[in-house]
Write a structure and sequence with these properties.
With 217 residues, the chain is α/β, with parallel strands linked by helices. It has a domain at 67-215: Sugar-phosphate isomerase, RpiB/LacA/LacB (Ribose 5-phosphate Isomerase B, Chain: A). The protein has 7 helices and 5 strands; from the N terminus they run αβαβαβαβαβαα. It has helices spanning 11-37, 86-99, 118-129, 144-151, 164-172, 188-200, 207-215, and strands spanning 76-81, 103-106, 135-140, 158-160, 178-182. The chain has a 5-stranded parallel β-sheet, with helices on both faces. α2 packs across α6, α3 crosses α4 (144-151) and α5 packs parallel to α6 (188-200). The longest helix has 27 residues, at 11-37.
Length: 217
Amino acid sequence: MHRTVNKMTAPGCEVSRALILSILSILFILSKCRCRCRKPTYHSGRPRPPLVRPPAGLHPPGPTRPQDLHEISRMRIAIGSDHAGYDYKTIIIEAIQKGGKHEIVDFGTDSAESVDYPTYIRPVAEAVARGEFERGIVLGGSGNGEAIVANRVRGVRCTLCWNEDSARLARQHNDANVLSLGERMMTPEMALTIVGLWLETPFDGGRHARRIAMIDQ
């Protein structure tokens, strides 16, 4: 008597089916990995370039204390503020003078009495634009109005900074020649840290120089 064998239950078929399932599982896992590893793209479909931080030591941390400011190359600095930035302006002037390497000229105001900020900010920006000073520092309550006024002067690249990274990048990528600070936005220690980094950090040049040249075209 012959016994009928079901083709789907034969030992060889069971091995083949298991092998096929294993291969399909591997292909499924690989497809998931490719999706996770796919580079993000812009809306245009171009691959987004990776974020690369500069190697350690390329841009060493700048001075963070007033007594460290003597280590920076000598520059002529113009500084001005309205009433809301007067206290920090005084602190910054004392810190830079204590360093002994920079010449700093105060464009006012001379007290915490209420004044109109364009009166004291525009002369700072114009002096930098004329080349009389290498850098300028302007201060107010938030620093916003001061930055707006300074940037109305052709040749001025005023940056509003609030932490170490913003100060460092303002110099590396934007070659900012005027710094705007908001007294109500930070501690005196942070303001001095920002000033130190901004004065010390060099401009990277390269592609950033090309982009800066396009600003006034």
